[in-house]
Automatic annotation (TrEMBL):
<protein>
    <recommendedName>
        <fullName>Alpha/beta hydrolase fold-3 domain-containing protein</fullName>
    </recommendedName>
</protein>
<dbReference type="GO" id="GO:0016787">
    <property type="term" value="F:hydrolase activity"/>
</dbReference>
<feature type="domain" description="Alpha/beta hydrolase fold-3">
    <location>
        <begin position="4"/>
        <end position="81"/>
    </location>
</feature>
<dbReference type="InterPro" id="IPR013094">
    <property type="entry name" value="AB_hydrolase_3"/>
</dbReference>
<dbReference type="Pfam" id="PF07859">
    <property type="entry name" value="Abhydrolase_3"/>
</dbReference>
<dbReference type="InterPro" id="IPR029058">
    <property type="entry name" value="AB_hydrolase_fold"/>
</dbReference>
Length: 120
């Protein structure tokens, strides 16, 4: 995403929230990450939010989160997976990684032992 666009989104995203404490609540970095569902976190090493991505991954590790998978796309910008896959091998690879993560979770659900039915 172009920096100018990101800046304009940043300015308008919480424009009506003036209280600093309330603004901080919008970011997951300021919350307990331990009870979230499995997460696939993917970002490019050239993207504007790279440092924030590293911080949230570090916080997840610090809190003992083990159900996240991180995929760093070397030398790629933000949202590279939005590019046409016939033009960007990185987009194709990033999409593949996300699909593999989703397939792994689906397989776990499908292969799980069924819960016993309750008695009537």
């Amino acid at each position: 995403m172009p920096a100018k666009f990101v800046d304009s989104v940043h300015e308008t995203y919480l424009a009506k929230v003036t209280d600093r404490e309330e603004r901080l609540k919008a970011s997951p970095i300021n919350h307990d990450l331990r009870h979230l569902p499995p997460m696939f976190v993917q970002y490019g090493t050239l993207e504007r939010f790279y440092d924030q991505g590293k911080r949230i991954i570090a916080k997840a590790k610090e809190q003992g989160v083990t159900n996240w998978e991180v995929d760093l796309l070397e030398n790629m910008p933000h949202d590279v997976v939005m590019l046409p896959t016939d033009v960007s091998p990185a987009a194709k690879g990033g999409i593949r990684q996300g699909c593999e993560f989703a397939a792994k979770l689906a397989a776990e659900v499908l292969n799980a032992e069924p819960e016993p039915e309750g008695e009537c």
